[in-house]
Amino acid sequence: MAEHMGGRTRHLRAVPPEPASRASDRHMALTPVSSGRTLWAEQLMSVVRAEVYAGVRTGVISAAESEELLARLNVLIDQALATS
Fold this sequence. Notes:
3-stranded antiparallel sheet, 2 domains, alpha+beta, 2 helices, 52% helix, 84 residues
């Protein structure tokens, strides 16, 4: 599926709005197909998430602190991608 924007085409893919196990119906939301930058950011967050969870397991950071840290980093990375 494609959406046309002023001479440019943006490809979209269908994804469920929430995890399938908790979805009350099967409506799908359209989101942009991941670009190279987005894939890089997802891989970065995956590595950071693994390191933060390792810190939780060793007691360096609490579980609550880890969730707060990951949420803030996710916002930071999203903002960085939006401005570039």
